[in-house]
Specification:
Helix content: under 10%
Distance between the termini: 103 Å
Radius of gyration: 45 Å
Number of helices: 8
Shape: rod-shaped
Strand content: 35-45%
Largest sheet: 6 strands, mixed
Strand order of the largest sheet: 39-30-29-28-41-40
């Protein structure tokens, strides 16, 4: 009942013309019409009848309601959000409703829009729709967050992450670390379309300014060992010797490098040549001359005696092998057999190897932690023209002499070319018998980590004829200026004694004689030549390699030789 000016107006409610005893819910029904008797005109306002024409009752007004507006919500894109149920509601004259919506991982909320007069707001996880005056469809809009894919080369931390914003976002990758032996020093991460920075203190890589999918790469590089860092500085002005120059001795103090097809793995090898005066090392109570930096970055040393002026820089006078009548006996280690592959079996140590091993045990074993186990000592027995009926010139003879001209196809000294790579021809290609399996039998080492054969028990060998050539020596030509010959007072480091190298020269089937390269003492100062392995007047000059992680201090002169130290981390490594 509505009382108006003392008159009674009776109100009845209907839904779509059907009588209902109570006022239809504001949540579900909307006003449709009102009709009154006795000329009264009215409307529905604020949940009450309001007479609009001023007439008085008594009157009976019938207010009709109908089902409310359909309001629905959809996601755009559909995969960007989880819509709770229901997604469609009937909303009455209250004009407002809510929906439950959560944004999916990898997406970000952008906006929600509605048709008609309705407006909507989002406060996760609730969408509130207001001002509903008609059929309404609301669209919940999200954007796919950009992804960042990080690939870490030679390291850890590769991952794919989602940006924290649609534009200008940031992600951080954790545990981005180089593998052991590698470094990010001097390397910048590459992230086209974004900006990346690496924090080495906490091993994180942060990518910022992300507005689209980004692919980043961060490749660690081999860390410079202490040895390489030292040699990079010492040899910063070094060049390469020209092809065709190895038939001429080098007298002046010189520094060079070699790389490419002439070294194992193509790695850069620094080496001294001529009358070098800054390659002295004091180690294990003895003096040494640096030959070169090995491919594994260890430092190769030639024994120079108990003082820098020593003229007895050798540990024994002996035959390379007292037995000479078979090609086996040019081997640092060897086996018996009738093929080159068979004799490379390395089941037996040569007498000269046994002497070196014994000396290592007595004089160097207590310094073993400083000495590389991965360094390779080449006993090159390669040959393209192996035959059981003619003179067999081995690899070094073909690279360094004219006597092997029938095997290398030319006799000009301009075609001399030494090699740090075991098994090479004079032109820098491998001999046909030097497959990786076969040539590895000539690559003596304790550890196989750098490609050596692992056949040694002691990390010690001899200088090769190729190393003598790189150092300025020439087969058949004296060079009394070369550091491998001279002591600090300018005399012979071995007096009048000649000394063995590790390089086979030839096997002569006619005389059944196995020959190896050697270096003259004072009689033909520093000349590279060859002798039968059975000649017992040669002397033994050990060669070892310091680990790449050792620290050198000093200037390398005879008066201030390099001194060797290491830390516990280095002590535990093979190299």
């Amino acid at each position: 009942r509505i009382y108006s000016k003392g008159k009674v107006i009776l109100v009845k409610y209907t839904i779509n013309g059907e009588s209902t005893p109570t006022l239809p819910s504001v949540d579900e029904y909307i006003f449709s019409s009102v009709k009154c008797t006795n000329g009264v005109e009215a409307t529905w306002k604020n949940e009450n009848i309001e007479v609009t024409n001023g007439k008085q009752g008594p009157s009976t007004c019938t207010v009709d309601f109908k089902r409310g507006y359909s309001v629905s919500i959809v996601a755009e894109p559909t995969e960007g959000a989880n819509l709770g149920t229901p997604t469609n509601k009937v909303v009455g004259r209250i004009g407002t409703t809510t929906f439950n919506v959560t944004v999916k991982s990898g997406y970000q909320y952008k906006e929600v829009t509605c048709t008609g007069n309705a407006t909507a707001t989002y406060d996760s996880p609730t969408v509130t729709v207001n001002g509903i005056t008609g059929e309404t469809v609301c669209t919940f809009k999200t954007g796919k967050l950009p992804t960042v894919r990080l690939t870490v080369g030679n390291g850890t931390g590769s991952d794919t992450k989602v940006s924290n914003a649609l534009t200008g976002g940031t992600v951080t990758f954790e545990n981005v670390k180089p593998l052991d032996g590698y470094t990010f020093d001097g390397i910048n991460p590459s992230c086209p379309g974004a900006t990346a920075s690496y924090n080495s203190n906490n091993s994180t890589l942060t990518v910022s300014g992300i507005s689209r999918d980004v692919t980043c790469t961060f490749n660690a590089v081999l860390a410079k060992s202490k040895a390489l860092a030292k040699f990079d500085e010492v040899f910063k002005s070094a060049g390469k010797r020209a092809d065709g120059s190895f038939g001429t001795v080098v007298s002046a103090s010189s520094k060079y490098y070699e790389d490419g097809k002439w070294t194992e793995g193509g790695n850069k090898v620094y080496y001294y040549a001529g009358n070098a005066t800054d390659n002295w090392v004091h180690f294990a109570g003895k003096y040494w001359r640096i030959i070169r930096l090995n491919e594994d970055e260890s430092i190769r040393l030639l024994y120079a005696g108990s003082s820098t002026t020593a003229s007895d820089a050798y540990i024994s006078t002996m035959a390379y092998n007292p037995t000479y009548y078979n090609m086996n006996y040019v081997g640092f280690m060897y086996s018996t057999g009738s093929t080159l592959s068979a004799i490379r079996g390395n089941s037996t140590s040569s007498p000269i190897k046994s002497t070196l091993d014994s000396w290592y045990t007595s004089d160097l074993q207590s310094y073993d932690k400083y000495i590389s186990k991965t360094a390779i000592y080449c006993n090159d027995r390669s040959n393209d023209n192996w035959s059981a009926s003619s003179t067999l010139y081995y690899g070094a003879a073909q690279r360094l002499t004219t006597y092997a001209s029938s095997n290398k196809g030319a006799s000009q000294s301009s075609q001399y070319h030494p090699s740090f790579k075991c098994g090479n021809t004079y032109s820098g290609t491998l001999h046909t018998d030097s497959s990786d399996t076969e040539r590895k039998k000539d690559m003596f080492s304790v550890s196989q980590a750098s490609g050596g054969n692992g056949a040694l028990t002691k990390p010690i060998g001899l200088m090769t004829a190729d190393e003598v050539s790189y150092a300025g020596g020439v087969y058949g030509t004296k060079n009394g200026d070369a550091y491998y010959y001279r002591n600090s007072s300018g005399g012979s480091s071995t007096g009048d004694k000649w000394w063995w190298t590790m390089s086979p020269y030839y096997f002569d089937y006619g005389s059944s004689d196995a020959n190896v390269f050697y270096v003259y003492g004072s009689s033909y100062a520093g000349q590279l030549s060859d002798y039968s392995v059975s000649v017992d007047s040669g002397v033994v000059r050990p060669v070892i390699s310091l680990k790449s992680c050792v620290q050198l201090s000093g200037s390398g002169t005879a008066g201030d030789p390099y001194e060797v130290t290491s830390d516990s981390s280095c002590d535990a490594k093979e190299n």
